[in-house]
Amino acid sequence: MKAPEELRSHRWFGGGELRDFSHRARSRQLGYNPEEHLGKPVIGILNTWSDINPCHMHLRERAEQVKRGVWQAGGFPLEFPVATLSETYQKPTPMLYRNLLAMETEEILRSYPIDGAVLMGGCDKTTPALLMGAASAGLPAIFVPAGPMLRGHWRDEVLGSGTDMWKYWDDKRAGLIGDAELSELERGLARSPGHCMTMGTASTMTSAAEVLGVTLPGAASIPAVDSAHHRMAAASGARIVDMVWEDLTITQILDERAYSDAITTVLALGGSTNAVIHLIAMAGRSGIDVSLADFDAIARRVPVLANIRPGGAWLMEDFYYAGGLPGLLSRLTDLLHPERVTVTGRTLGEDLAAARVHDDDVIRTRDNPVAAEGGVAVLHGNLAPSGAVVKHIAAEPHLLTHTGPAVVFENYADLKKRVENPAITADSVLVLRGSGPLGGPGMPEYGMLPIPAHLLEQGVRDMVRISDARMSGTSYGACVLHVAPESHVGGPLALVRDGDLITLDVPSRVLRLEVSDAELARRRAEWTEPAPRFERGYGALYSDHITQADEGCDFDFLARAGHNPEPDAR
């Protein structure tokens, strides 16, 4: 156990030098007497609340519950606003700014008199960003997930945000519903604070955080408006104080076993393809090499047990009452590392000792899975030398082995302009390039390319679609994503032409352009590199240092372990 003099914050407040005197005077300016914080763990609460982030609109209130827990445990809480990454509103994509929030998190934790941190987030890119920054800073830290919103409702339908939005928008384009129905759907899709209640990126990444061991057990699946969420926030505030005294840092928790378990869990959840990129980046911050090969190897032995949309039938509220993530993990213990430590100070196995499943349809048994293999497949071939991914459990099965002629779109604007071409058939392969980490920029979620209206009217609801973009975790379809290297840097996707045959063979993990090497070499000689997207500012920094999708899209100067020197507090 630490002594008060060993607290990091003691260097700011506890000595007899000029700077200590100045710091204590400024604390009084803030309204605090020295006895309120001297010798106590200073807990930084990093809050991503804002007026423009509906997923986090309750975190202003939750921060007060965190503070309550900190005070009760004998700590001293200080709330810090950090960047809010709203998947709904931030364009072209919050992914462009994930690393910016990670940098902000790391530098705030390093530069202020903070002994431990509570990280508050949940919307898609927020979770990995906060954890990447915390991993680089290396202090004791605990994550408070925002929690999923309540299930949606429309007439007699239960709605899943995102997933049913795409579904009914296609029905509108097909002429099956009109503006009046769409207006009703707007009112019913999102009814409360919280992130998407499907197994989208938000639910996937908060679940990954839980199995990594950086949340309290069961935290990720608690609905945002449930009173249990209030209690979890307070308990997290209390626990971080003890973690500081115990000197239990996030670095001790995020080891190679933790990331292996996170991959296993994401695949068993039928989780978002975005988790592949995020976990590679997060592991890199911990000095651990995670690659697409790890996802591929684990996917072949891990079944999908979470029957949650878009790959299943239920929603996160149902998942919580069926046993939540602890229930699912209790059915995977032989595939996990139960001996490793979590923020509780106990082992993962001890945390799961009381876990139960209360509904075998929501959380399936191993002998009755949603799918026999993990929900994401990794593909390779001459069209994706460094890899690509597809969420096969959310695709029409007959399209998982398919050869068809390419219809190529240069960018998103070109897609919107030409996608209604009547010559496109259900056998066509829609190809979007210019949408990767550099080309997008930021890999926008364009990957669920729209199906032409004339095909929707014929009842077509899925086609093979290929891009260097990402797609929302709430999306579905035979969408091949994250093709690497991206077209903007001269990846083979840049060489595809209309009419080229493309083969997708998910069982064999193959993505192949049926064009000779000689012809591809001729086309490459004609290819010219696109102009940079940014000339100044953060965009230029991003463009100069971003890595490719298979490497996690981190900045090259951050994508490794190691801690910068502690600041001189004197």
TrEMBL record:
GO molecular function terms noted in the UniProt entry: 2 iron, 2 sulfur cluster binding; dihydroxy-acid dehydratase activity; metal ion binding
An example GO biological process term is:
branched-chain amino acid biosynthetic process
Domain spans labelled Dihydroxy-acid/6-phosphogluconate dehydratase C-terminal: 361-553
Keyword annotations for this protein, in alphabetical order, are: 2Fe-2S, Amino-acid biosynthesis, Branched-chain amino acid biosynthesis, Iron, Iron-sulfur, Lyase, Metal-binding
Q: Does the keyword Metal-binding apply?
A: yes
Question: Boundaries of each Dihydroxy-acid/6-phosphogluconate dehydratase N-terminal domain copy?
Answer: 40-350
Matching Pfam families, A to Z?
Answer: ILV_EDD_C (PF24877), ILVD_EDD_N (PF00920)
Kindly indicate whether the keyword GTP-binding belongs to this entry.
no
> Which EC numbers does the record give?
4.2.1.9
Q: Looking at the record's lineage, which domain of life comes first? A: Bacteria
The protein's enzyme class: lyase
Tell me the NCBIfam families matching this sequence.
Answer: PRK06131.1, PRK13016.1, PRK13017.1
Q: Which family does it belong to?
A: Belongs to the IlvD/Edd family.
Q: What is this protein called?
A: L-arabinonate dehydratase
